[in-house]
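Why does residue order matter? Because the sequence determines the fold. Keep that principle in mind as you read this record.
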Amino acid sequence: MPEGDTVWQAARRLHIALAGKVLTRSDLRVPKYATADLIGRTVLDVTPRGKHLLARIEGGVTLHSHLRMDGSWKVYANGQRWSGGPTHQIRAILGTADRTAVGYRLPVLELLRTTDEGRAVGHLGPDLLGPDWNPDKALENLLRDPARPLGEALLDQRNLAGIGNVYKSELCFLLGVTPWLPIGDVPADRAAQLPALAKRLLEVNRDRPARSTTGRRDQNLFVYGRTPRPCLRCRTPIRSADQGDGARERPTYWCPTCQTGPTPSPGAAQHRTGPRRTTN
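Structure:
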């Protein structure tokens, strides 16, 4: 599931492969940009912004993409077989003299003027892995609507950028509160810790092939995707339910013993055997 750390890794792979090199192949397979030709231009850098990727290209152009749930960028040596999916799922190809980057199943792909990047990412809050990170601003954003459930506030990229379903559930567990607790009711000392804790989790995972929030070798995550297995701390079965505003429901996991606060009615809670795929 692409979250801030996953996107950071994708940006790094693309930057290493493309930055400072001239494009020898350019193929954007979306109708609006099918005739766009970037051949001969140098890729300047590839930068992550929350869950967004910005590939800046010579001539004041930025290729903006978002992975959502199923998208991915793969990098291949020239002559290497592409293995990211069937050909009809390819949305973008950027090639240089020695590397080719292939974008699969990209739900968002657009060419922007670099000066207009704000149109795509200007709404985002402080980036947990970016140079604009500001923990005080992130906390201020989160607390702006004190009645909002904590889980929903964490997923709102306008508050802070980079958290998805996995980190939402794991952060709530580490704070000892349920994702349905209004953020204004989170004890002040724990709320104050939230931005730094979120940043630490993403930072330690941005260089790891497998995401871990537990520090354990035998189990990477505390609650996400673990229904109905026992809690690593108290052995109570982990529970799950959908959470959202009605427009978009997200699978959410919690320990009913270790986390305090409101939870869905028994009929709404479910015993999932693993995470359900949703848009993100």
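The radius of gyration is 20 Å.
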